[in-house]
Amino acid sequence: MSARDKVTIHKLPTGVLGLDEIVGGGLPEFSFNIIAGAPGSGKTTLAHQFVFANATSQHPALYFTVLGESAIKMLRYQQQYTFFDPAKLPNSIRFINLSQIVLEKDLGAVLAEIIKEVEKSNPAVVVVDSFRTMVRNPQGSLSEMDLQSFIQQLALFLASWQATTFLIGEYAVDELRDNPIFTVADGLFWLSQIAERNSVVRKLQIVKLRGQASVPGLHTFRITDGGLQAFSRTFGLSGHKSKPPSQRRLSIGIPELDSMMGGGIPEGDSVLVTGASGTGKSVLATQFIAEGIRQGEPGIVAVFEERPQAYADRAGSFGLDLEAPQKEGTLLILYLRPLDLSVDETMNEILDAAKRIGAKRLVIDSLAGFEMALSPGFREDFRESLYRMIFALTGIGVTILSTVEVDESFTEFPFSTYSISFLTDDIIRLRYVSIDGQLCKILVIIKMRGGNHSQDIREYEITSQGMVVAGERLKNYQRLITGIPERVNRSGEKEEL
Amino acid sequence: MVPLETRNLAQRLLTYEAATEKTSASTESMVLRVYEKLRRHLCALAGVAGFHSLASRALTLAKIKAPNLSTMQVAADGSLHQHGDAELESYKHQGGDGEVVLVSELLGLLHAFIGEALTLRLLQDVWPNAVFDDCDSEDGRKV
Fold this sequence. Notes:
The structure holds two protein chains of two kinds.
Chain A: E1 11-12, H1 19-22, E2 27-28, E3 32-37, H2 43-54, E4 61-65, H3 71-78, E5 93-97, H4 99-104, H5 107-121, E6 125-129, H6 131-134, H7 144-160, E7 164-169, H8 180-184, E8 187-196, E9 199-209, E10 218-224, E11 227-231, E12 249-250, H9 255-260, E13 265-266, E14 270-275, H10 281-294, E15 299-303, H11 308-317, H12 323-328, E16 331-335, H13 343-357, E17 361-365, H14 367-373, H15 376-379, H16 382-395, E18 399-405, E19 426-435, E20 438-448, E21 457-463, E22 466-473, E23 477-478, E24 486-488, E25 494-495
Parallel strand pairs in A: 3-7, 3-8, 4-5, 4-6, 6-7, 14-18, 14-19, 15-16, 15-17, 17-18
Antiparallel strand pairs in A: 1-2, 8-9, 9-10, 10-11, 12-13, 19-20, 20-21, 21-22, 23-24, 24-25
Chain B: H1 4-24, H2 30-65, E1 72-74, E2 80-82, H3 88-92, H4 97-126
Antiparallel strand pairs in B: 1-2
Helix pairs in contact in B: 1-2, 1-4, 2-4
């Protein structure tokens, strides 16, 4: 069957920021969907967002309420969200309470009432909230066949009447296998919320969606004044073509370091700058971003450990002006530290900012601060999330420089506490060494995926001009990377330091 | 305390119904007709039980201000009934403050729960030809 012969399934906007991308471009028209989850997980709000995004006076929405939350209270609370448009009531969105029929009559009467209202209004959207309450069977008089028949008839009728339907219910995961409603449904949206320590982690899964490919897995979502906001695991970059690899090198703003890296950082690389506290990681990162601004490359600094103003002030003390580019809109310093962030939300912030200013360079200062800013539940997935984030950002041509603090050891030479060096293209290691009774600093390029780099171990200083790589490579020492080097004379004999 | 605007709104509904009565020649009191129209719409929106709760609360509040409502009761279906031997008819033609107080209290509760904008939209749905934002209109009708 050629593509031309296939029926076109129109996609309706979900009204939820980020969700259209997750469901594959929008919700299939005339689909019969379930929104499941525990109380308070956002089911009703999600349904309202869909209803308000799609209902018009020509194509209205019918919202059937059944026991549970009263329509008056529902309206009271839902109108607090910014998507709630009172002008849509009652012509475009009509609330109908079925409690009395559900309490006094059987499912046949309920179906008859729904049919009557649907035939009267010819709605494009139908919601039943809560469907679970509607088919509750306390007396046990309802057979499984009765229930299956009711669901089947309801689904058939609503699809035939060209209505896109949402049934809302408080279902548990272990009901997925046996409940006939999940078999009949075209789409199944599962919302969950888990309290971990002092944070609440909300996740959404498209368990099934007929007719189109959705993004698999658990997606973080947040409930804000604007309702639900979903954060796709693919960061809204599904189907986005990666930029072809560039041959360009980006200057760090430290000429000697640029030359150690073969002319700078390859554009689109992810660079890890690692070292102990006070070795100058943030200084190097600031020089990288400031050099980009100088060369007309907008940049973003995501800071987690200090406020943007403090970051800009510190840069100023090294003669690097981060104030003017912020005013000009070529630099954004994002402070992200609400302590219950997900990587996906952070990514969303960064990607939005990157698109807004056309960022070419990004500094994450630091990964330890980033991890701390995440909800405990998300920290377990930090490595995996970081991988997705770096892959997504470098895919759109952003060059990322991340800093990470490592404990200084005199027996090891660790690059990171996260085992994330595989995520990075290039690693610059900074460390302290004891030379001639002084605590000095050395740097070395550990790896560069994009080509050859200097193997030299160079001494550097943090001056009023920032990081300055001084002198030639340290030739007369052995075991420099241990931090306790030994001087060797020309004949190769060790000398005491 | 029901705001003056809500009380004025209730009065306008009664006036509007009175204007309608001229053509329909109904003998029902305006308050019962207004109440009944609200009941039908609110039962559809909030369910019979939901409306019953609202109406009971409104009647309780109204009885404090209008003792002539003391024999009134809200039936299980949300309709108004006269308690004891008194006939509902005796209420139907009562004038004075009591008429407007019950409707005012009901509208006041709606206002408190769903806000002014939604309350007005709901009333507009019940009385599509009435104008609720035009206080100068003589009988509440569109001109």
